[in-house]
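Sanity check

After download, print the first record. It should look like this:
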Amino acid sequence: MKFTIYQSSRQGPRAYNQDRVAYSYSKDALLTVLADGMGGHSHGEVAAQLAVNVLTESFQRMALPVLANPFKFLSEHIRQVHDAIDRHALLNDMPEAPCTTIVATIVQHDMLYCAHAGDSRLYHFRNGKLLFRTEDHSHVQVLVHQGLISKEQMLTHPERNKIYNCIGGEIPPQIELAQKRPVQEGDVILLCTDGLWSLLEENEMAEILQYGVVTDTMPVLFGLAEARTEKTGDNMSAIAFNWEGLKYNPVAISTASMPFDINTTIHDRAPHGDSGADDQEYMEIEKAIAEIRAALGKIPK
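Expected structure tokens:
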């Protein structure tokens, strides 16, 4: 298995960052996960960080070196995150539970498995063309399906930030499992939050991503989006990878010599601002996650 991967989370004009991204891989499987927290400062971070932690830690235990059922893994562990958040809110008498979107993928045996809830997206590009992307669980996406607005109007509609499906909250998530898809040499898989995709055209993404490895092209996409953002813009986060190929790429990851019983996880610790309280805020998030786990017991193996 060989791939080149890039991940980043940019705070943008917001006072704090509620996005979280991470990836984990074994000898024969790759997990990527991205979450966009909602529900007020600290609460959204808790939900997003918990989602990333649960999926990566569970992957590390279970992908030795592949998962028996990737779709079952994704759906069960995403639901587990929702139940944990719900229980945490109940035990702490919170007026509303923290919430987060999620999009997660597993690639093994050259097949792509994807699950999502909310409006964080997955894009699958090949040879400069978009093959597939997930559909947002948002009010404006429903309006598009009903023919009431166009895709272009989605980006400026006053209800563009309203979603009807996420992790956390009173209603259990409807986890959408995309049909598994083959991936081949040179394909680009991109996961990103609405803070990024809302500022870029799909043809721009496809064109830029085809002209090099993601470690070079993704900073270009971020730069383009940041140049267009406004003072009221959102956090923007993404994780993207080139599959196989690119034989002479010095930053490519190859698992050819990796032991069968070893996994590696890389988190992108999102910045929280310039207030000097970064470490304190991060500790508060970790404390809240620890409290959730203490109440529910350890994540089942």
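If your output differs, re-run the checksum step. Summary of this record's structure: DSSP finds eight helices and twelve strands in the chain.
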